[in-house]
Amino acid sequence: MASQKPPPSLPQNPELRKDKINNKWVVFSPARSKRPSDFKSKSPVSDPNLTQSQTCPFCIGHEHECAPEIFRVLDDSDSYSNWRIRVIQNLYPALSRDIQPHNPGLENPDCGFVPGFGFHDVVIETTTHPVHLSDLPGSGVGEVLMAYKKRALQIASFDDIQYIQVFKNHGASAGASMSHSHSQIIALPIVPPSVSTRLAAMKEHFEQTGNCILCEKLPKELLIYESRHFVSVVPYAASYAFEIWIIPRVHSAHFHDIDKEKADDLGGLLKLMLKKMALQLNNPPFNYMIHTSPLRIDDSQLSCSHWFLQIVPQLTVLAGFEIATGCHINPVFPQDAAKILREVNVEDSEEIFKEVNVEDSEEIPKEVKVDC
Fold this sequence. Notes:
Layout: E1 15-19, E2 24-28, H1 48-51, E3 69-74, E4 83-89, E5 119-124, H2 138-155, E6 163-170, E7 182-188, H3 193-209, E8 223-226, E9 230-233, E10 244-248, H4 260-281, E11 286-291, E12 308-313, H5 320-325, E13 328-330, H6 334-343, H7 349-354, E14 367-368
Parallel strand pairs: 2-13
Antiparallel strand pairs: 1-2, 3-4, 3-14, 4-5, 5-7, 6-7, 6-11, 8-9, 9-10, 10-12, 11-12
Helix pairs in contact: 2-4
């Protein structure tokens, strides 16, 4: 008897889902893709071992080729030349720290002009060119996160700065102009409209339900992994295929309130998610962004505003419909993406969290030379 083929699975119908946190709609159209498990990056990040530049200004020994340094995190030798992380000014900043800060919009909300005062910094995450952030131990990623915190607290002392955006571009098609592993911090004299929209949506949900929307229990089918202090999920109305959010389990409005223990835990979970994504999606270019609250947030909004880290693999290109409407088309349903990522086996996943020393109470690693 000839073997029978299993019946083909029924295609899922398209859906529109409301992203209540960012107050927008997302179209889910699985007919536009292959099976979710076959979704791979068509332009993976090339092997850094093959593209290493001998003249990279971010490599150790080339510090003099960079823009001015703000501070560095030293290694265990305590020698100034032996650093692990450097925070420097961006050589081509989007905003200028050298102009007179003044925000006429604070006195006149209808004012359509604000001088471009602000900060644009680069966080060099490792001394070694071929090493990616996900190659560091979880505690090493945690040190990078603590460097973000340190710099954010320094910048927060400037009254004219309203919002601090931490982000990482990995791969040329994700916006990275340097292949050496790094991330960036831009501090703005205004609160971006997307942040204001997110805060308003979170506040509306809180007023209607009495709960922070990110503190509410999420459906199990969207869960990828839980650590001691954080949970990683695919959001219910993900704008991008295989988008991941890492959310603090305990309510927190500002990223810069993180402590060393939580930073190490987040570092382990971020490392794990990046490894899962690389294995499943053919090492795609990606961006991650830390969505925190404005520095001068009203006290009434602290209970409804909850920070999170968003990871977006660059698998598709925004086209005319998305640009025109603001509605993204996602070819992979979130529950399918979460299931696939849950099942990706990372060999050292248990070791990632064993290496974190939760008894270490040191707030900031050894640092020198602070100059805003």
